[in-house]
Give the backbone structure.
Amino acid sequence: MARLEGGSFLMGHDLAEGYPEDGEGPMHEVELAPFSVDVTTVSNSMFGDFVAATGYQTEAERWGWSFVFAGFLPDDFPDTRGVAQTPWWRQVEGSDWRHPEGPHADITDRLDHPVVHVSWNDAVAYCSWRGVRLPTEAEWEFAARGGLDQKRYPWGDDREPDGNHLMNVWQGDFPSANTLADGYLGTAPADAFPPNGFGLHNMTGNVWEWCGDWYHPDAYRHHTATDPTGPSTGTHKVMRGGSYLCHDSYCFRYRVAARSSNTADSSAGNIGFRCVA
């Protein structure tokens, strides 16, 4: 973990870019106490240690399926149900954290990649075992900014400064063609790409990261000035950072101010987490 001294920062933004319906604004000043944060997302190896010690079964394992990006499935893969609004997501039997693309896949060569197919509930179980917790949304954004003020990305405002790829997102035409210009089709190692100013890797791109807060589009209007924790109840939990499937044609959420959400029992091949203390 990296120790962050906390302090005051401007959370959210008031710019025209992004998705106002997500509640990315208003920009507001927040004061945070010191905290520590994982330098990377929890990896397959780290999650494997938890499972070996406790015998824990993820919700995807108990249900027998999770959501997999259709482009990862073999041509002869049996037809599966898709999500109506996002048909590139397929319900795949036998997909879980050990088998990210289904029974035909494993993580033997991906132990240093982020664990995926973990629900918010699974992430909380891991945190409890390790004696840590999920970050608040405010802590996550403070950490992602890396000490920079109101920049679009953890390193600045240009997505690819001087032509350098600094995160793992979709390159090309989504969802049909990925040029792999950043070097990856699916997940990248959890410590891939240079860290931000706080020494943290992949705060944007690679995998979505669960936060502890309940999600609401008006949450920022009710934030306390010090250590806000979000709404007291809700139906969805906050996710931050975007993933390897994000593309500005449909999901320009690989920005430090961007927000998204999912139900606490949801899992997919692009959702992971990191811990704080």
Summary: The chain is about 15% helix and 15% strand.
